[in-house]
Amino acid sequence: MLTLFNNITEELTALEKDTRVEMLINILKQSNALNRITGNQLCVWFKAQGHDLSGVRLRKMINYIRVRNLVAPAVVIGAGNGYFITTDTLLIEQQIESIQGRIDSMNAFMDTMKAQLQSLKHNK
User: Which pTM value belongs to this model?
Assistant: First the structure.
């Protein structure tokens, strides 16, 4: 759970783990690099199945699938234009590069914020 985001980043519920994750995996197995599924499409699909699902909870479930390697030997790729499953090593390398870029950007922001905090503490 993330501080300041407690209500939306809670751990997955039993319903999510036992039912929705499997449903999501089955949908993602129908995807590929040319047939991507957007987060919005997935949320709409879940709602049509009687499962109200926010984008935040969807991303939490995607992360759960990725971290537990639940679509092995494939991996879930996420891009601005949707999610898909692949075993293409080039696409996986590109996803790693993209994630590393986001990590680097967040680290730069965190370093700046720490410096700003120290400045504020020093000026008090």
Answer: 0.84
